[in-house]
Amino acid sequence: MTREAFVRLLRQTGRTLDIIQRWMRFKITASPLNPWRIQSLNASAFAGKKVIIIGPAQTVVEDLENVVVDGYDVIVRLNNGIALARKNPSILGSRTDVLFHNLVEHGERSAGAIPASLLREHGVRFLVFPHWGFKGSKSRLYKKREELQDFQGPALMVPSTRFCENVRRELGGFQPTVGASAILFFLSAQCKEVAIHGFTFFQTPYLVGYNDAVATADEARAWAAASYVHDPVREKKVIGRYISAAEQRGVRVALGANVRRFLSDVR
């Protein structure tokens, strides 16, 4: 073995050991035996409930025509979705029961600030960080939990590790977007109904006020692609399969007209 080959082997071994160590630390952190772990969002809490998931696509208002959002048992929003609801509560609903958020609150990739006071004001019961896994920094997760505890905010939760690992596997190793995480989670629960509105899978702009960095469909696609960890095309296929499976279990799945249109090419 040459010296260069030996050095490469050492480096590769070091990287492998680092990954193994991080994986072991995560398993210990996420273990049910760890009293300080981040609590898992329990799908059984939504059994028999009528759930509506409201996405940020420009088409959401059209999707929600003749829909009474506040009539649902559980209203789910994403990232900066509370900002949209506050501007148009008569259409988008006046409360948020569950908020899925990536916890990036500042900077160029901000998904919207969510201080404890805002979450309380909008009735948030569960704040969910969907990207739960051994990869990536957890610092903002624990920082947010501490903030919410200090200022009497809602519970900060994560999907189960089994759910997250299964979804990533079905996505071919890609990480689900926040919206896909919410959709797949509730389609997996034994809800009475799951209504999905305001999603075009990055093929149209966002509703004004959700993300000022995105004004066109091309910019929406570029925003999703910029992180190099998402694959919206794969997500559509997986969501289509989850919808079919949920319907076979007796769950009523109600899709907004535009959601159905943008999913139709993969179902």
Automatic annotation (TrEMBL):
Keyword list, A-Z: Glycosyltransferase, Transferase
Record's keyword annotation contains Transferase: yes
UniProt-listed InterPro entries: GT29-like_sf
GO MF terms, alphabetically ordered: glycosyltransferase activity
Keyword Glycosyltransferase: yes
Tree of life domain: Bacteria
Name this protein carries in UniProt: Glycosyl transferase family 29 (Putative sialyltransferase)
Organism: Rhizobium azibense
